[in-house]
Design a protein that fits this description.
The chain is of the alpha+beta class. The protein has a single domain, classed as 2-Layer Sandwich (GMP Synthetase, Chain A, domain 3). Helices cover 44% and strands 26% of the residues. It is built from two helices and three strands. Strands 1-2-3 form a three-stranded mixed β-sheet. β1 and β2 form a beta hairpin.
Length: 77
């Protein structure tokens, strides 16, 4: 399974929680060195807790499921 598909599968498990608060996350790019660029959208893009959501929620889930990822960076809308 391509890496982007694995990442999307993990993000799909997180999305309902983000969407419940009016936000979402989308995969922007998987770079050749396995760095991952995500975009926080909706309420997540302006929420003061978005750093915590990114680190404790999204990044932790991705690293547990896909340990060989590089940096995981989130950009905001």
């Amino acid at each position: 399974m391509p890496l982007a598909h694995k990442i999307e599968s993990v993000l799909d498990t997180i999305r309902p929680y983000l969407q419940a608060d009016g936000g979402d996350v989308e995969l922007v790019e998987v770079q050749s060195n396995n760095d991952v660029i995500l975009r926080l959208t909706g309420a997540c893009s302006s929420c003061s807790m978005s750093e915590m959501t990114m680190t404790a929620g999204i990044e932790e889930s991705l690293r547990k499921s896909i340990p060989d990822l590089g940096k995981i960076v989130a950009i905001k809308e």
